[in-house]
Specification:
Length: 380
């Protein structure tokens, strides 16, 4: 099978839902990272065969195939196609998988994997609003027969995880505080500067709270009476975009590109849709086994911090080193712009491997419906 390489990776700063990026049209968010990616890699945009873009709430300004709209909004060649992917929170990680699979199959040479989401302009769940307003089920009769009429939500799933793995509110808050501490330290040290393409006057991620404390977190109301979850232990509603260029070995030679990382393993697993957020655990086990690696071989992990119980349970079950897991903070501090997060995390991952001279990196995230992608890369 042919090899696939990441030869460029860039992202916007991750903005807050009421921050300076909230008024930027999603097509322009996407166009910004696509333009920057082409400029940084020096590739003739006409050589790009497809743009695969993750986006979850495909409605309003994020409708009508935002991948194609963003590429054209960037003034890039009309000859390049675009397709938009929805695998919930893993949408742009799936975009990386589809792009890499196109290259590894030998049918494509250069493919962009990207993601975009403006949750300030298009609220989470906006694409489900029609069904809700019309009094229609989001799931259908077959689902109801299988799972009953119990609540299916990421919030309940996170609480169920906290209960199953015995995580108290204090455990979750300590994890969240560490996420902010790491993100603030990384930002202060300039670790993100090389990967970020400033936009609308924003040069840094907006969600980091270097002055937060356990005392402040303890003063928040739980999301539901009796729950361990509060807003402090959940990912932030965010705005952002990211893009990576995936190239074949032939394209690397032909265009004089310098690979950042080689794609080692692409895995996908489904798990309990009621718990919803547990799939990174079996998905990681599957990916490591197929790659012939152990968790100790992984130098940097990016696991999406949808809620604090997710990485805590994952580390417990995999025996992962906390120091190598989200070393520069995660979505609790840096934000989670849904369909963009996969591309943002992969951009963070390959740049951190480069900075630390690590060898293997692993990315995973929980996704709606009880799914998870895992991507393993090797620094070149």
């Amino acid at each position: 099978m042919a090899e696939a390489y990441i030869v460029g990776a860039v992202r916007t700063p991750v903005g807050t839902k009421k921050g300076a990026l909230a008024g930027v049209h999603p097509a322009d968010l996407g166009a910004h990272v696509l333009t920057e990616l082409m400029g940084r890699t020096g590739v003739d945009p006409a050589a790009v065969e497809d743009v695969v873009m993750g986006c979850v709430s495909q409605v309003g300004p994020q409708a009508l195939d935002i991948a194609r709209t963003a590429w054209l909004s960037a003034g890039l060649p009309e000859t390049t196609a675009g397709v938009t992917v929805d695998r919930q929170c893993g949408s742009s990680q799936q975009a990386v998988h589809f792009a890499a699979q196109g290259v590894m199959s030998g049918t494509q040479e250069l493919v962009v994997a990207s993601g975009v989401e403006n949750m300030g302009m298009v609220p989470m769940g906006a694409n489900a609003k029609y069904a809700i307003d019309a009094g229609l089920s989001l799931f259908g009769e077959g689902w109801d027969r299988r799972y009953g009429d119990q609540e299916i939500s990421q919030f309940r799933g996170a609480q169920l995880m906290a209960e199953k793995w015995g995580h108290t509110r204090e455990d979750l808050e300590r994890y969240s505080l560490e996420s902010h501490r790491r993100a603030a330290a990384a930002r202060e040290a300039g670790y993100f500067e090389k990967q970020i393409a400033p936009l609308a006057g924003v040069t840094q991620d907006e969600g980091v709270r270097p002055d937060t404390t356990l005392e402040k977190m303890a003063g928040l109301d739980p999301l539901r009476e009796g729950w361990a979850l509060t807003a402090a232990v959940a990912s932030q509603v965010s705005v952002g975009a990211g893009a990576l260029l995936i190239a074949s070995e032939h394209a690397v030679e032909r265009h004089g590109l310098t690979p950042m990382a080689r794609i080692v393993q692409l895995s996908l697993v489904g798990d309990d849709p009621v718990y919803m957020l547990t799939a990174p655990i079996p998905a990681t086990r599957k990916a490591l086994e197929k790659a012939g690696l152990g968790i100790g071989d992984i130098d940097v992990t990016e696991i999406n911090e949808a809620f604090a119980p997710v990485p805590l349970a994952w580390m417990h079950e995999l025996g992962a080193d906390p120091a190598k897991t989200n070393p520069n903070g995660g979505a609790i501090a840096l934000g989670h712009p849904l369909g963009a997060t996969g591309a943002v995390l992969m951009t963070k991952l390959v740049h951190e491997l480069e900075r630390t001279h690590g060898r293997y990196g692993l990315q995973t995230m929980c996704e709606g419906g009880g799914q998870a992608n895992v991507t393993i890369v090797e620094r070149v």
